[in-house]
Design brief:
The chain is mainly β. The protein has no helices and 6 strands. It has a 4-stranded antiparallel sheet, with no helix packed on it. It is globular, with a radius of gyration of 12 Å.
Length: 75
């Protein structure tokens, strides 16, 4: 459950590009960001202040094509 902000921690074995999207449950892209993540752990602050209350998916894609999806609820 997220209220206004969230922190995403990404573990990486090397420096690489990371694309992140927040989508609503209808598949519409609400936010899209590109990051460079360092070797080790990188923390990314995500602002959800402008999102309406509801369920969203956060999708992360590395330069290698690895994809992770997580759902969260915005209150």
């Amino acid at each position: 459950i997220v209220t206004n902000d969230a922190t995403l921690t990404i573990a990486s074995s090397r420096l690489q590009k990371f694309d992140m999207m927040i989508m609503d449950m209808q598949g519409r892209i609400i936010q899209k960001h590109n990051y460079a993540v360092a070797e080790g752990n990188t923390s990314i602050e995500i602002s959800t202040e402008k999102l309406a209350a509801g369920v969203y998916q956060l999708i992360g894609i590395t330069a290698e094509g690895k994809t992770n999806v997580m759902r969260f609820v915005k209150q």
